């Protein structure tokens, strides 16, 4: 089946989706929407499709069957609900929504409409992380005992917008950046999070949201984890995950691949190193996973329920920091 795709939020990340879609044979970019008419015209000139300054006009197009929502976080709920009611399958960028109630509303709307909903936790689809996950699932490394995952990056990069700096609009480093290591570590551990303890701060920037955070996680299978979330003004990037397993250690990097730690040395696994642009490769894999779920009428790998569990932990971490105590996820629903 050839799918007609609409991109809602034709900005920087919408363009990355468009480039990924250009590599797939079973899709056609039909339409894109953005409120900035001049920027929208540049987008459609480069990638094709019809441009709409209001997403509802895009949703009204019958030849669009699937949309990606890559808008500011605080617009996710309104647009996702409208897309579900319009009968469109949805790839919703992370974070799913700024509140747990909104996450539930989105998932319920998609199920009621009978459309597929997948949330774009793209780290799961990178070549190196998929390789690591397959290795863990094979039993070669034994059981994950503990792990650390970091995403520390320069915060005021060129695509930063005012809403990124305001938690009431879904901004802040934790929901924008920290959600990635939270998701990828939990996916690799493969067990529900039971408790969360966190501390957040704003040390680098004048803004109404966090720019640093450390989160401690306990998992149902006995594993534990630490997440580092930093949007610095002075520093250096770090985007890694390190796991201690009962049969060795793993160090995972988007671009550098997977290293196995055994016998007092680290050894790179050459086949785990991605070829070409790791981000584009991940987006291509992400789209293939969603389209396969649509065509086979199966649950997408990052369903609304899966993403909801990650958001529950993310919001519980914020509550932990505010209250100064460890919070059980069973009390945060």
In short:
This protein has nine helices and 15 strands. The chain is an alpha/beta fold and 333 residues long.
CATH C-level of the largest domain: Alpha Beta
Gap between N and C termini:
39 Å
Structural class: alpha/beta
H/E order of the elements?
EHEHEHEHEHEHEHEEEEEEEHHE
The CATH fourth-level homologous superfamily of the largest domain: Dihydrodipicolinate Reductase, domain 2
Major sheet attributes: 9 strands, mixed
Strand order of the largest sheet: 14-13-12-11-7-10-9-8-15
Mean pLDDT metric: 97
Q: Which consecutive residue ranges, at least 5 long each, have pLDDT under 50?
A: none
Describe the structure.
- This protein has 333 residues and is of the alpha/beta class.
- It folds into two domains: 3-122, NAD(P)-binding Rossmann-like Domain (Rossmann fold, 3-Layer(aba) Sandwich), CATH 3.40.50; 124-281 and 310-331, Dihydrodipicolinate Reductase, domain 2 (2-Layer Sandwich).
- It contains nine helices and 15 strands.
- The chain has helices at residues 12-21, 37-47, 55-59, 76-85, 100-113, 127-137, 173-189, 278-296, 304-323; strands at 3-8, 27-33, 50-52, 66-69, 89-93, 117-120, 144-154, 193-201, 212-219, 224-232, 238-245, 248-253, 257-262, 265-269, 327-328.
- The protein has a nine-stranded mixed sheet with strand order 14-13-12-11-7-10-9-8-15. The protein has a six-stranded parallel sheet with strand order 3-2-1-4-5-6, sandwiched between helices.
- It is globular, with a radius of gyration of 20 Å.
